Amino acid sequence: MKTHKPSQTLHTTRVEVVDRLQVVIYLAKTDSDFPERELRMCEAYAHAFRWDVALIVVDDEVDAPGPERRPMLQAALQRLLDNRAGAILVPSKAAISPIEGEFNEFAERVEKASGFIQVATRR
After folding, report:
1. Taking 60 as the threshold, does the pLDDT of residue 4 lie above it?
2. What is the DSSP letter of 6?
3. How far apart are CA 123 and CA 117, in angstroms?
4. Which residues contact residue 107 at a Cβ distance below 8 angstroms, ignoring those fewer than 6 apart?
5. CA torsion sign, 24 to 67 to 100 to 32?
6. What is the pLDDT of residues 78-90, one digit of tens each?
7. How far, rounded to the nearest angstrom, does the alpha carbon of residue 29 sit from its chain's CA centroid?
């Protein structure tokens, strides 16, 4: 009589590669000082959600009328349009625009690029 020997099984661990969200930190420079506190707040927020910071934009031209006339903000949006980031992280809505309607219009453009704007709130 033949004895049946169990076949050797190979145990493998399945590893899923999950791409982490790439974000652009957008900071509006309102005076001559570098916005260090706002940068640290945004970096901490991104870290808490395990997001990777793809680009940090510090905009000196925040006095330009409307978000569409600020080249640095448009560069942040372009990262989303090029699928190199999925979100724009800001310290406050006012970094985009203090005018609610302008903020909402820009947020719609970001959403059309399959992204979102996230305000970094303290946790």
Report:
1. no
2. P
3. 17
4. 96, 116, 117
5. positive
6. 999 999 999 999 9
7. 18
